[in-house]
Hints:
Layout: E1 6-15, H1 22-40, E2 44-52, H2 56-64, H3 69-86, E3 93-96, H4 100-115, E4 119-129, E5 134-136, E6 159-168, H5 174-183, E7 188-189, H6 191-202, E8 208-209, E9 211-212, E10 220-221, E11 224-229, H7 231-236, H8 238-241, H9 251-257, E12 262-266, H10 270-283, E13 292-295, E14 298-300, E15 303-304, H11 315-322, H12 324-334, E16 341-342, H13 345-373, E17 378-380, H14 387-408, H15 412-433, H16 435-438, H17 443-464, H18 469-478, H19 489-495, E18 501-503
Parallel strand pairs: 1-2, 1-12, 2-3, 7-13, 12-13, 14-16
Antiparallel strand pairs: 4-5, 4-6, 6-8, 9-11, 10-11, 14-15, 17-18
The protein binds 5'-O-[(L-methionyl)-sulphamoyl]adenosine.
Amino acid sequence: MMQKNTFYVTTPIYYVTARPHLGSLYTTVLADVISRWNKLQGKELFFLTGTDEHGQKIMQAAQQVGKEPKKFVDNFIPVYKEIWALYEIDYNYFVRTTDTSHQTGAQHFIKKLIDVGAIYSGIYEGWYCTPCETFVTQKSIDKEITQGPLCPSCQRETQFVSEKTYFFKLSAYQEKLLQFYRDNADFIVPKERFNEVIRFVEAGLNDLSISRTTVEWGIPFPDDPMHTIYVWVEALCNYITAIGYGNLVKESEFKKWWPANLHIIGKDIIRFHAIYWPAFLMAADLALPKQILVHGWIKVNQQKMSKSLGNVVDPVLLYDSYGAEPVRYFLLRQIPVNQDGEFSTGDLEHRIETDLANDLGNLLQRMAALAQKYNVIEVKAPKIWSEQSLHLRDESWNTIEDFNSYMEDYMFHMALARLWQFIKQVNSYFHTQEPWKVVSIDKKKFIEVLAATCHSLRIIAILLWPVMPNKMEELLTSLGIKFKVADDIVKHLELETWNKQFKIKKVLPLFKKPI
Ligand code: MSP
């Protein structure tokens, strides 16, 4: 079968009880970087993000400020979109679960589950965590108990609920899920998370309540308007409704993009994505997403950054102080994607000063200033490179290969660390060649040093483009290169001998050191 040259990547849809914080930005930046990285491979992209707007949590938050839920959520949407724009998040579509197309699509999906006999009615009795919108299972539930178990995810108190509900026959999918996991060893990255999921499923699955009679703020359950669809079930449907599921006119669009290549999620919502969602899709006879990338949490003083703990960092304040791209770089370089990471402005400032301003910014600045001083504008590659330059070229090829393989494994911090190793090599090449001395003795050699530095900077800028698109386009412009994304650049980079011609323009410092 011919491989599709498309890539469909999603973020979770965010609960709109507040403005986005650095944790929400983190997931979204990861998706943007992966999306741009795939564009560099010549793929056609669909990048979806959006907001999760129904359920008890939103309803209560709206009530607390005396607003209608819809008006309450409407207020936040421009804020989300503005912050994503500040951070250069180049999404294709912003889905809202209050969109009519989402609502009809989600109902269509539930109807399909009903038609195939995957749903039955019953009574749910158990504990519910509103902040997580999760049913908390407890093996033997005693109605007399007034205090339920703490939510295993957020450690907050749960409330007892007893209501009529529709159940999805999740238990019937245990074996099928396990078989799917066995057949798709890369379904969940990182491996540790995948193993947790497998252990959980192996322990047995309970059927899942998928409707609420006590929550009005939701999508009406098909053919039974006393129920609304459980918020998590319809929220998961956003991944298909946003690309046209349930809409005959958009059938070809849906076929083009589904299944998604990658769902990016935080570790707190893995069960929904790695167990429930695949089981629903199996029941509805739809293909399963190809992969799920699970990232850790951004913490402040060892605790997850979250609105309820009051320890959130506002992305707008960071933008005002440091600019978007240094923050994007920091998030990827500092925090291994499979681990939790502590946020501190001290670390951020340190990275900006050393990695960005000193190592990278100064390299460009020094090379361009020297070229200007000696009136060199056009820099041609020499016919024969010196041994030192050839060594640098070999190092650049090794770097491209390593960077590529780290990126394919979503090891962004390693990819960037590897690239910085090369940046240091280029700095050291520039330094040891002493072009400021060579210029008066051997002009050809002087140009060669500039040419090797320009070739290296070009490679660095292209590899870094997914992380810092504007800055890297600026860098390339100062070398006289117009950056185009369309032509599978990374593959070409790996095959290139150094034969480019550069036109050095006057450059301003790429990165400002924090004051
Ligand atoms: N609405 C659900 C997702 C439904 S997807 C079909 C939800 N929303 S959320 O707003 O609470 O979280 C959205 C994403 O942000 C999750 O992936 C979560 O892990 C991530 N983060 C929220 N706080 C975070 C940190 N402090 N650090 C990193 N990511 C964090 O869950």
